[in-house]
Amino acid sequence: MLLKIDTAGSRPTDGHLAELAGERVCWSEFKYRRGTELFGEGEEADYVYEIISGAVRTYKLLSDGRRQINSFHLPGDVFGIENRAIHRFSAEAVVATKVRIAKRRSLLERMQCEKAGATSVLDFVTQNLHHAENHMLLLGRKTALERVAAFLLEIDERLAHPNVMDLPMNRRDIADYLGLTLETVSRALSTLRDDEMLRFEGTTHRQLVLLDRKRLAAQDV
Amino acid sequence: MLLKIDTAGSRPTDGHLAELAGERVCWSEFKYRRGTELFGEGEEADYVYEIISGAVRTYKLLSDGRRQINSFHLPGDVFGIENRAIHRFSAEAVVATKVRIAKRRSLLERMQCEKAGATSVLDFVTQNLHHAENHMLLLGRKTALERVAAFLLEIDERLAHPNVMDLPMNRRDIADYLGLTLETVSRALSTLRDDEMLRFEGTTHRQLVLLDRKRLAAQDV
DNA sequence: CGCGGAGTTGATGATCTTCAAACATGGTGG
DNA sequence: CCACCATGTTTGAAGATCATCAACTCCGCG
Predict the structure, then answer these.
(1) Of A55, A118, A156, B21, which residue has the fewest beta carbons closer than 10 angstroms?
(2) What is the pLDDT confidence band of residue B110, given thresholds at 50, 70 and 90?
C-alpha cells in the first residue's frame, strides 16, 4: 500500500499499439518490481494499463487487513479503465511486471467519440462484470476444492492451455482470490495431486501440469 | 428456471413496440406474480426492465441447485441491459412486481448514438461492476454477522432510510445473496436484535427497524 | 552457513451448515 | 367461521468444513 511506484527503466514509446482505441493514443512503458503498487484504492484514475509481461493483482482491503483479490491480470490484459475518476481498488505487481500506460482521459475521450470505440469500452466493462458475476458464484457457493479447480482452469484457459502452467502468484494470493486461507489452497492442491489431476513440475511448486482437465472441470460443478 | 413468464394482467400497448429505432423508446408495463421468471440465464436479452413496484432477484445456479443471487432490484432500478445478446443470469420476481419494459435494441441504439447516452449506459454497467466488487469482498472475506449487517445497511440505504424497513425477500433469498444458509441469517438477525441494533415490527419478521445504524456499520468493518 | 520466504502437513478449534422440531402466518375450501 | 395446509421463521443439537496455530521442509541468497 505504501510502496512507491517503481519507474526504473521506464521507456516512452511512440505507441501505435493501441488496437483498442484507434490511432493516436500515446502509450509509454513502465516497469514495476514485485510487490509494488501501480495504483491505490481511492486514487485518481489517470492511466489505463496494458500488461506486457508479468502479472498484476487488483484487490480491496478491510480495515483489519483482510484482503479480497478481484482479479489477476496477465500479459495482454487491459485494466484501469474506470468510469469514475477514482479507482475502486488497488493494483500491485505480483511479479516483476512491464506495462504500457496511456492517459485515461485521452483514451476515453477518443473511445467515446466514435461509436465503435464506445462499444469496445462498454464491451470491456461488461467483460469485467461477467467475470465478477462468475466469481460471486464461486465465492458464495463453491467448496474449497471446487474453487481451486475453477482457479486452475481459469488460469489454464487464459494461458492458452500450456503444457506446464507457471503460476506467477503465491498461495496467499490464490487464497485471497478464492476467499480461502493459504493452507486450504495448499491442501486442495495436494488433494488434486493425490487424485492425479495435476502434477508439480520442478521443485518450486509454482509450475504445474494439469493431467486431467475433464476431471478438474467435474470438481467444479 | 422452468417457470413460465406470467403475463397475467399484461397490458400490451397498441403496437408502439413496432416503432423501430425511431425517436421514442417505447415502454410498456408488465406484471409478474411472486416467483415467476422475467428471463432465464442463456436466453436472449431482448428487453430492458425498470421496476415500478415490487422486487426482482437476479441469480446464477450451479447444476446441483446451489444458487447465488447477484443483486436485488427495487423500484426505480433499471436492469437487463446486457452488452451481449444473451443474459448471463436469471431474473425472478421476489414479490408481485410491476415493471416497464423497452426493447433492448432500440434503447441501446438510441443510447449509443448520442454521446450522453453512451456515457449513461457505461455508467450503468460501471455501477453494477462497482456493486459486484464490493460484494466479492463481502462474500470472500466477511463473517456471517458482518454480511447480514452490510445487507441491512445496503437495503436501508436504497430505501432511503425508512423508519420501518419492509423486506420483500425471505430468509433464503437473503442467504443466497450473502453466501450463507437461511438459518445462519436468521441467527444473525436474532443476535442483532438481542444486541438492540434492530427490532422486529409487526408479526411477520419481514418488517424491521434499525435502532443503531452506527453500531450496525461497526459490525461491518 | 544461516536466514527468510514459500510451501506442506498435522492437530485443534471455531464458524457455519445440516438436520430437526416447533411455531406463526396467511390463504383456501368445506 | 374454522380447519387445514403450505410457506416462512426461529431455535436447538450435532456435524462438517475450513481456519488457526504450529512444526517442519525446501529453496535461494546474502
Answers:
(1) B21
(2) low
